[in-house]
Write a structure and sequence with these properties.
4 copies of one chain form a homotetramer.
Chain A (H helix, E strand, L loop, with lengths): L3 H16 L9 E6 L4 E4 L15 E4 L4 E3 L8 H10 L5 E4 L3 H8 L9 H4 L8 E2 L4 H5 L2 H15 L9 E4 L4 E5 L2 H24 L8 H12 L12
């Protein structure tokens, strides 16, 4: 069946979110892109994880229009659509309200880079896009959430290839990646980094930012030209 | 058998509380209303969750009088009875001592609205009814706990339809809903919001309250006239 | 077989400690008394929980002398022995290094009574016996730990019937009860109260102590002359 | 098959790390030494725990050269190699990014000895080796991480036999032991001590260091000449 592959990928990704305790109740959603057809599969809105199946995933085009499926797509669908449209290289998007990352988003603060766990994945603080303006919120809210993310990444001069996670102030984290599996992985890592950072500040308020040499070393050994981490996994 | 339906609902709800780690030992109780007959089914007092069965649920009328069942009903039965009596629209009530929500109750403070996870469910801080007076405590304590809740909701001008959770200072949370399933869901959400809020304050003492536009937007997209969250779930 | 009953009780209790996540590695020990014969069954020292069986429980008299069993009894055996000897009414003792209760013991502070979860079980702060003197530590350490507990309870004028849990400063909690099952329950409750109290202080430093009327009401409804909590459980 | 024993030991140890929730995703690695042949078995780099098997463990000599195996060894292999080379008595090494211990490493602080849980295992604060110099980082990084550990232990005058765990500032914990099973145990204990210490400080900032008499007593009863903890386990 057409779109079977992305339906399966999106299904597996959504289930992995629950398995990893990144979602409560029906919160959270993952989508997988079929870049050849310019469509993606996404979780239906408000359905408990235990009731999901690959067939229930909704197919939507990158303008956010439903193409196939019986159910309403996630209410956050337009945010996913904008990220796929603006960042051609990505193949998956994940949104959760995972506890610690969401607490940082509620505090409206970027997550400082304190250790190599963080530097293994990105070389900058996990960014926090500011609260949207009243106009953006009152208009096409989810669509504008996508642009809030895209524009803040651009304003910070961050590439979506090198920084694969962001917080939206007052809301929660969004992550992405070459595949939806990688986006799920990034959600897990974002939550773990968020938890370690809260604890670090509790142990030592005003803990120092990680040394730049360590940041570069850890990022390069996993992602640089001469990377030597892993087997032949995606780098 | 008469009352089978509410016995089953109450049983499922009580078991769901334990499954979701919202209760320790024999703490916590859930009840389900049969509004046609003006009675509700509630957990027996002090029985471990693993020993419960639908048959053990006790049937009580909304004055709190036992109608059917071999065991003593929960010691909090009169609190449930008052809420059913005073708020005709609700169909289920849940009481837990879940860790984070109870910590806020012990701190005798409302839980500030810091993010959209909160705003998805209510537009105000999760209220905290003050410690009861000596007279109320020494009289019919559980009955007066019900009235403490009802009167504080009225004093704050909150409707039981729009605000489905409250803390009682020095004690713990109570939640309710159109069904007991929804009340259980509200207990889970209350605990998660409570945890996120503690963490938010740890990251940033005096973190700002969530922007009003975001509060309205998130609540309206789930509960407003033009709500577009979910499929055809209760809104 | 002689002592089968207390061996089984002690075994079940030790396994329940691990099941409830109250112990890490081989930490923690539970014992059950046979008051007719003046002996108790206790966990062997340093054996992982998954390798335990009822037969491995060691039988010791209340002077702390091994009566039966192939293995060495827990290194904390003399502490248990002292409590049984000095407090004739108790039938079980439990010692854990559960995380939150141990943190309070390490902070060398009693756990303030902040809520009804606490008041349901005792009407005073969970006491913290001071660090033992150099002489006590250098002598028969575990034996003196028992006396440190007994003497501090006496100095505070607490009865072992009404206060069934204590912290030993710099060390960890000890609990007891009419049965070892009740002592395990008390360990679980002590840990939960300890966690709620840390969180309460984080939310509101110098949070107020629970109102005396609430303390009395909650304790009396579970343990007083006219108690109405539970069915016919031990009160 | 040659090296079967250490492959099995390393496999079991790596799986035990995941079982104990000490690792997220592919983080963490355990290795087991064959001291007769001067080689050790270590986890392959970047492979998820669920895909591991004894056969996939990589055999490396203590200079860090791969001897046998199809996959790339852990990127931290040279750190393990240095510890085996410099400390002839050890038989296993473990590295994790466990949450609480890593937070202390990120805070760049030693973990103060606050209680007997800590003193049961070592008599000093869990040391934290300082952030490495730019030169060390830019050179053979993992190799120099090993020397950073060895040299800091020497500078503090700590023996690898008595202190079996360390934090590397900005990075995470490393542990070791006579066997890899003991090294895994030490990782678990290090994490638990780290968590208790954060909580102790939250309850009481500037909590007092544990009394020296208690430190000595607890360490000696487990590890001293007249140790009386356990059966005939390794002391």
């Amino acid at each position: 069946m057409k779109f079977d592959s992305i339906r399966n990928q999106a299904y597996e990704a959504n289930m992995a979110l629950e398995e990893a305790d990144l979602v409560v109740a029906t919160f959270g959603n993952a989508s997988a892109l079929d870049s050849d057809h310019g469509v993606f599969a996404i979780k239906p809105s408000g359905v408990p994880y235990r009731d999901l199946s690959p067939e229930l995933m909704v197919i939507v085009d990158i303008e956010g229009k439903k193409i196939d499926g019986d159910m309403n797509p996630s209410s956050d669908t337009l945010t996913h659509a904008v990220l796929y449209k603006e960042w051609p290289g990505i193949g998956g998007v994940v949104h959760t309200h995972s506890t610690y990352a969401t607490a940082w988003a509620q505090a409206q603060m970027a997550i400082p880079i304190y250790g190599t766990t963080h530097a293994d994945h990105l070389t900058v603080d996990i960014p926090c896009a500011p609260v949207m303006t009243a106009e953006m919120i009152k208009g096409q809210y989810e669509y504008m959430t996508g642009y809030q993310i895209v524009e803040y990444m651009a304003a910070m001069n961050y590439s979506a290839r090198e920084v694969e996670m962001i917080l939206v102030a007052g809301h929660a984290p969004f992550t992405w990646g070459k595949t939806v599996k990688k986006a799920v992985y990034n959600s897990l890592i974002c939550e773990e980094i968020a938890k370690m950072a809260v604890l670090t500040q509790q142990i030592r308020p005003n803990a120092p930012r990680l040394d730049n040499n360590l940041i570069d070393k850890h990022y390069q050994r996993k992602h640089g030209a001469g990377a030597y981490y892993g087997q032949d996994m995606e780098k």
